[in-house]
Amino acid sequence: MPTEDGAGPDLRHHGDAEVRDDGSALVDLAVNVRAGTPPDWLRERIAASLTGLAAYPDGRAARAAVAARHGVGADRVLLTSGAAEAFVLLARALKVRRPVVVHPQFTEPEAALRDAGHTVDRVLLRAEDGFRLDPAAVPEEADLVVIGNPTNPTSVLHPAATIARLARPGRTLVVDEAFMDAVPGEREALAGRTDVPGLVVLRSLTKTWGLAGLRIGYLLAARETVAELARTQPLWPVSTPALAAAQACVTPRALAEAARAADLIAADRAHLVAGLSAFAARGVRVAEPAEGPFVLVRMADAAGVRRRLRDLGYAVRRGDTFPGLGADWVRMAVRDRATTDGLLRALVSALPGPSGPPTGRHPD
């Protein structure tokens, strides 16, 4: 059901706020950047670029590399200062009358649209439906539709064919694939597709490669859309070190490493989901099937659980700032098994109700 709501959740609250002040003392399960990154070889590539800082950035080589990675022409690629910049460009550059954002999802697209003066409709997916997309729920008259895949924070991976059904002549369809490289085989990806009218796909290099502080991402779209968005960008929007990172992260070596990381994330996520499911008797419910490097969890007294977990050294992301979710949701990043087991031990005392190991499994 589409809704329009200018108030409600704080759209500018993000996971980093959970660890900003005392994050060094906390195990970070609130931010979805892969732990242990960037790898040494990537640090070295970025460091080597520093000798060229006297020159203005030249993005041609990085743009060509990204284009080759997705099998499209360079004129279909726009490099951005993180994927979040792309949402601002879309909100400012495109002349749209009825933008629709499919929630729950990353809130920055709606925040950018509202900042640009747009009235935004929301299509709220429901927990009882598994947060699955029904294309018929999106109004026909919507001329801009934004959806994440896999979606942050629900971890739902929508079928590419289902998302493609949202495409219409005269409509821009924005698909945020910031976490798609964490999905084994990148199944259901639309990046590189040129047969879907109005398609704009956003990718981030900050999550898998640990480059949130460097700010590098890109979008793929029709050449006319790319040219229109580029006119809205400031001069030299992507720094030389970020351009070096973009080139490095789309090499065959990097893609192979990302594929291995995606397989490991899937295994670590299964371990986390199994551990959380063992707390079902104490009211814990995981939104399944989860396909991203994070899981969405429903529990009683979620705010209290978050506070108690902080006292025990673990930070998780509150869920109530995502439209369509209430105060009984939290998001947890997937981490290695040792970190997850520590979280599960902390949950024994952090959850409301009688303390003790979950039935059927001791979180060790």
Automatic annotation (TrEMBL):
UniProt xrefs under InterPro entries: Aminotransferase_I/II_large, NHTrfase_class1_PyrdxlP-BS, PyrdxlP-dep_Trfase, PyrdxlP-dep_Trfase_major, PyrdxlP-dep_Trfase_small
Boundaries of every Aminotransferase class I/classII large domain copy: 27-347
Keyword flag Nucleus: no
Names of the cofactor(s): pyridoxal 5'-phosphate
Keywords per UniProt: Aminotransferase, Pyridoxal phosphate, Transferase
Gene3D superfamilies: Aspartate Aminotransferase, domain 1, Type I PLP-dependent aspartate aminotransferase-like (Major domain)
Keyword Membrane assigned: no
GO molecular function, one term: pyridoxal phosphate binding
Name of a matching Pfam family: Aminotran_1_2
EC number: 2.6.1.-
EC category: transferase
PROSITE patterns: AA_TRANSFER_CLASS_1 (PS00105)
UniProt cross-references to CDD domains, sorted A to Z: AAT_like
Family, per entry: Belongs to the class-I pyridoxal-phosphate-dependent aminotransferase family.
Record-given protein name: Aminotransferase
